[in-house]
């Protein structure tokens, strides 16, 4: 058994499969700007570095070139307005997520979320899932000047909750989660089922590779 007091979770691709809602918002943005819709696998590969990068990657694919600042800004505003309407609709949790989070809380583990998704969208998602009370701290990609793969948000959570990074576990689906945790001096679990630009999460060298969220209970709660 691994002994950690604080578990920091990624959100998209780790707790929820948010690509359906992100795809809706991306395609609404593309339609508004006169472009053809993007297919689901493409959107899946564009997630991971926050909304600005998602919008930039979608626009670059549609235009065949990098957007200028004005186009990017207009597209981001269109995306935000569309995503605001759907972010908390029809949420799908990966198998085992809700039960395992509840078991970790019952065992006295402290839980936090560090996502690259802009913070404004996150409270509604957690409220719609009944998870608002489970996490002591929630940081979005724009909560601090740096987002994952910077270790800054992970270390900020430890400082705020007065916890030692050496007794903290990061759990995520992307190399950004693994790199952030490694730079923060934290152990990290890489989940295989999320979004990692189509790459194998094992390649970034997490301490554990799990294909099932419920396996976290075996890692953290059995002795
Ligand atoms: O919004 C993103 O690009 C990714 O979000 P995540 O950090 O929760 O996976
Ligand atoms: Mg993720």
From TrEMBL:
Pathway: Organic acid metabolism; glycolate biosynthesis; glycolate from 2-phosphoglycolate: step 1/1
Keyword Oxidoreductase among record annotations: no
MF GO annotations: phosphoglycolate phosphatase activity
Coiled coil (residue ranges): none
Entries under InterPro entries matching the protein: HAD-like_hydrolase_sf, HAD-like_sf, HAD-SF_hydro_IA, HAD-SF_hydro_IIIA, HAD_sf, PGP-like_dom2, PGPase_prok
Metal-binding is among the record's keywords: yes
Binding-site positions, Mg(2+): 10, 12, 173
EC number: 3.1.3.18
Superkingdom, natural source: Bacteria
Name of the top EC class for this enzyme: hydrolase
HAMAP family: GPH_hydrolase_bact
Name of the protein this chain belongs to: Phosphoglycolate phosphatase
Upper lineage: Bacteria, Pseudomonadati, Pseudomonadota, Gammaproteobacteria, Aeromonadales
